[in-house]
């Protein structure tokens, strides 16, 4: 089924391609993502949905857990992401190209809906969460994940530069996507949107992603491509003082002696938060009244 041509809050369309970044992040954070999946007690025979499956790495891990009799379904808007996911699709997994808020999937079809770093891309995260919740069987779980709910630590030796760089990134996103400060911080409200969707037993758990020098290849590749090379750089110049931009440039330059990823004191911290709610059964509804 072809996707509806649409644009999300962050400009997502069927042509939008984050494939390289998605693959790098999945490789970088694989231990923490697998630990998050393990915390949900996914069992053989279950039907699971990866909503916003990207390039399919997590879909493959979910499919392995529900095998051999279960089914894993991945849904994504991007043509490029699904092409990448299809290349390593397990036999007990299916792919669907569609808008999460208007998917053709049947209600009450899944034991688990997993959606990480996705809901904040939707125009209406609360409506999107309700749509995902409607796909749960009685007693099923909706797990919404988001990285970086707490401020990331990049420069353990310079908290001030870290703070102004983070503020510059936010200013850039406000200007590029015409977002308000509320739009940029509402991503932290995963617990609230689960409650709004009428789910029961809502809870959160946070996994710490911590890496320090010397970095392995997966950590170095992700940090270099997605942060030091891609997120920062020239586009932040208008939002920083000349002195701060020069310092950031030195730290981001692999040829400079002070390149951050080569420093022996490099210490990176990021969080991955999972908010989980259950499809409300009549017993759950009675207990909350």
Would you write up a description of this structure?
This protein has 289 residues and is α/β, with parallel strands linked by helices. The chain has one domain (19-282): Vaccinia Virus protein VP39 (Rossmann fold), CATH 3.40.50. Helices cover 37% and strands 21% of the residues. It is built from eleven helices and seven strands. It has helices at residues 19-28, 30-38, 57-66, 79-86, 125-133, 159-177, 181-185, 190-196, 217-229, 242-252, 282-288, and strands spanning 47-51, 71-76, 93-97, 110-116, 136-147, 200-212, 267-278. It has a seven-stranded mixed beta sheet, sandwiched between helices. Strand 1, helix 3 (57-66) and strand 2 form a beta-alpha-beta unit. The longest helix has 19 residues, at 159-177.
Brief description of this entry?
The protein has 289 residues and is an alpha/beta fold.
Question: How are the SSEs placed, and which strands pair?
Answer:
Elements: H1 19-28, H2 30-38, E1 47-51, H3 57-66, E2 71-76, H4 79-86, E3 93-97, E4 110-116, H5 125-133, E5 136-147, H6 159-177, H7 181-185, H8 190-196, E6 200-212, H9 217-229, H10 242-252, E7 267-278, H11 282-288
Parallel strand pairs: 1-2, 1-4, 2-3, 4-5
Antiparallel strand pairs: 5-7, 6-7
Helix pairs in contact: 1-9
């Amino acid at each position: 089924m072809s996707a509806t041509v649409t644009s999300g809050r962050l400009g997502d369309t069927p042509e939008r391609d984050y494939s390289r970044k998605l693959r790098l992040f999945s490789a970088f954070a694989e231990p923490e993502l697998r630990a998050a999946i393990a915390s949900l007690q996914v069992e053989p025979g279950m039907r699971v949905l990866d909503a916003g499956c990207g390039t399919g790495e997590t879909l493959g891990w979910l499919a392995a857990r529900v095998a051999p009799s279960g089914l894993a379904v991945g849904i994504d808007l991007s043509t490029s992401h699904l092409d990448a996911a299809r290349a390593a699709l397990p036999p007990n997994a299916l792919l669907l190209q569609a808008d999460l808020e208007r998917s053709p999937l049947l209600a009450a079809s899944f034991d688990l809906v997993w959606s990480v770093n996705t809901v904040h891309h939707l125009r209406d995260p609360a409506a999107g969460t309700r749509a995902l919740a409607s796909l749960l069987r009685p007693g099923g779980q909706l797990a919404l994940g988001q990285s970086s709910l707490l401020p990331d630590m990049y420069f353990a030796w310079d908290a001030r530069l870290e703070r102004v760089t983070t503020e510059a990134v936010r200013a850039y996103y406000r200007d590029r996507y015409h977002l308000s400060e509320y739009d940029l911080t509402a991503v932290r409200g995963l617990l609230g949107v689960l409650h709004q969707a009428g789910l029961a037993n809502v809870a959160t758990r946070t996994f710490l992603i911590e890496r320090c020098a010397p970095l392995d290849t997966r950590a170095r590749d992700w940090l270099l491509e997605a942060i030091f090379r891609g997120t920062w750089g020239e586009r932040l110049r208008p939002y920083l003082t000349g002195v701060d931009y020069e310092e950031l440039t030195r730290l981001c330059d692999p040829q400079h002696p002070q390149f951050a990823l080569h420093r022996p004191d490099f210490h990176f911290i990021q969080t991955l938060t999972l908010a989980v709610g259950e499809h409300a059964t009549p017993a759950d509804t009675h207990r909350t009244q």
